[in-house]
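Researcher: We're teaching a course module on how sequence relates to structure. For the next exercise, students receive a sequence and then see the predicted structure as tokens, so they can try to spot secondary structure elements on their own. Here is the exercise chain.
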Amino acid sequence: MVSRFVLVIAALTILPPMIAAPFAGAAAAPQPLGLVASRGPVPLACLAGECAAELSAFCLQQARDIPAPGARYRLAGGELSLIAIAADGKTRRIAGDKVLSLVVERGYSSVRVTLPRRVLERMGAVRAAVEVGERVTLVPVAVAGDPDPLDETEIATVSGPLRGLGQRLVDDGGVAADAIRLANGLINDLPETGRVAPATAARLWRDRIARTGADAAAVSRAGAMVARCRERVTEGHAFSLRRCLETLHDQEILLLNQRFWQSVLGS
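Model: And here is the predicted structure for the students to work with:
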């Protein structure tokens, strides 16, 4: 008998190719992005009808425009997996590009991945996570009327040699990359809106460290970000710990991205 899970996936895979509706004065395609390898599952938080998480990203092509918040992207290389978890703990891993939506959260440094809750329920799952594999490359969804779309040669370049360089300098960027993963993990642990009590924030940070198993140097670097944000919230210079961490996370991404751009220019 064909399982309900298989039927759901089959229905989703026959959707037409993603091409955004045309609009007057369409801008050129923005920067292709690399998703930072997660090195483990990233849980999706479900609220109302949507399950979502924020993923760290970086720019693969500096010359193009920075994507606007809400810009839609698709997978062009690497493996992005959805892990569906049933009530009995059994898991199913499927290709994330079949069911996940990817939109820019903040410039090139953060991508929001979403899954409709109804799709999760149709799979017979009660929760889900995503895992970003090595060399994951995203390109903007094609827009009718784009005066300068990415062509196949350009996509092959950014998903091939440029993404390989990005893996070496960003994904495998040592303490800085691991600190970014820790910060991103805590961002996802915190509520999307509102504030949390200091004791709750401290507990979430301890739990994040324990789950990740990062080395002391990365914990120290990310911990300095957390401490700075706690101070900024207390002093009234930041609305919430999550909003502040998003800003510092993006600054850390920028430092690694600059090293990547400089390497590309020097090659």
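Model: If you want an answer key for the exercise: Residues 48 and 117 are 8 Å apart (CA to CA). Confidence is low (pLDDT under 50) at residues 1-25.
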